[in-house]
Amino acid sequence: MLCAYCHSELSEGAESCAHCGAEVRMSATSGSPVGAAADLGKSLNPGLYKLHTFFSYLYLLIAVAVLLVAIAASRGQVFVGVFIGLLAGLIFLGLAALHRYAAKGARFGKDYGRATSFAIACLWLLGFPIGTILAIYVFTKIFKSWEGSGEPETAAAAGSVG
Known about the structure:
By secondary structure, the protein is mostly helical. The chain has 2 domains: 42 residues, no CATH class; 100 residues, no CATH class. Helix content is 58%, strand content 0%. It is built from 5 helices and no strands. Helix 1 packs antiparallel against helix 2, helix 2 crosses helix 3 and helix 3 runs antiparallel to helix 4. The longest helix has 31 residues. It is flat, with a radius of gyration of 21 Å.
């Protein structure tokens, strides 16, 4: 299982995380640590995790392609081509990093993953029709089925469910 705060692996029956020292709180309903995934490979929001991971790699590939095209188009002035390619590629590297950040947040069910996904979806709305379809998909995922909001479960909330 994973620590809800630093995502380090927890030993069985641990009362606190060995890495960050955070107290491990147990859920009143399931008996498992609050906010912890069942194992290292489990994603709490797998659809968004896969979508953002795909786009992070896509933008990384585009950044490399932009750099190579700029070098090829520089006609012997490699320094100028590299400089222009890196400048243009920085935009795509930033987008790749943003999607990677959203993917990590979606995987662990963190609120920053939801907020980043929302911001990306708002930008995608401008890319009609494919971007709009992707945005609608993201909106349905973050508003209806977001798992692991990172909020600790309280005894009062657990007692009122039922």
